[in-house]
């Protein structure tokens, strides 16, 4: 409804507002996070840590930093997840590797590269 050049929007207080744009973004952000976690969670890692510590390298230089989803127009950056979701990443890594008898002894950054150090649990 327009009056004197001012546009008014009528809102029904009994209807729940629909924020589809934000919901779509959050769903796709979760998908991108899961893709990053799959990159860091190695299947059968026990073999890799038998002889000593093993380091996973996540390269975030240039195009390697992008996480593209096939049905979403925007791209997510791995570095943003490491910067803003590092606690969740650490918790997820610890949860994944602990049940396999592996300790995540560190998550380090050197410029655009991230290192995850794994070692066999003593127990």
Could you walk me through the main structural features you see in this protein, from its secondary elements to its overall organization?
There is one protein chain. This protein is an alpha+beta fold. The protein has one domain. The protein is built from three helices and seven strands. The strands form three sheets. A three-stranded antiparallel beta sheet has the order 3-7-6, covered by helices on one side. Strands 1-2 form a two-stranded antiparallel sheet. The longest helix has 21 residues. The chain is elongated, with a radius of gyration of 21 Å. The mean pLDDT is 89.
Identify the notable features of this structure and list them briefly.
123 residues; single chain; three-stranded antiparallel beta sheet; 3 helices; two-stranded antiparallel sheet; elongated; alpha+beta
- Across the major sheet, the strand order is 3-7-6
Strand content: 25-35%
Number of strands: 7
Biggest sheet architecture: 3 strands, antiparallel
Q: Label the overall shape.
A: elongated
* Number of structural domains: 1
Nearest-angstrom radius of gyration? 21 Å
Cα(first) to Cα(last) distance is 70 Å
Rounded mean pLDDT is: 89
Helix percent band: 25-40%
> Which structural class matches the secondary elements?
alpha+beta
Which blocks of ≥5 consecutive residues have pLDDT under 50? none
N to C succession of SSEs: EEHEEEHHEE
How many helices? The count is: 3
């Amino acid at each position: 409804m327009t009056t004197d050049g001012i546009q008014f929007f009528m809102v029904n207080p009994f209807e729940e507002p629909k924020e589809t744009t934000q919901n779509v973004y959050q769903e796709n952000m979760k998908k991108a996070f899961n893709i990053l976690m799959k990159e860091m969670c190695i299947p059968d890692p026990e073999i890799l840590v038998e002889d000593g510590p093993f380091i996973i390298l996540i390269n975030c230089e240039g195009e390697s930093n992008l996480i593209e989803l096939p049905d979403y127009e925007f791209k997510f950056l791995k570095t943003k997840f490491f910067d803003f979701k590092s606690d969740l990443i650490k918790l997820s890594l610890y949860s994944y590797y602990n049940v396999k008898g592996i300790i995540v002894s560190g998550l380090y950054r050197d410029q655009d590269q991230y290192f995850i150090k794994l070692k066999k649990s003593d127990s």
